Amino acid sequence: MTQPKRTSVRVTRGGPVLVSGPVDIELPDGACVKSDRFMVAVCACGRSKNYPLCDTSHRKKRRRTAD
Description:
Elements: E1 9-11, E2 17-20, E3 23-26, E4 32-35, E5 39-42
């Protein structure tokens, strides 16, 4: 019996979840997003305009006000 292929998932602090592709991502509403890339960045912050795929929106910093 052959072992099933394992999928690699890497969680990055403050960034996306990186998943070895290709992948099919099922959304809560039942829609499916497909990606054929070898590594897929899945948005973990919810800011992406291309959700569920990451568009690096997590990198934008908020301006701090002077104390």
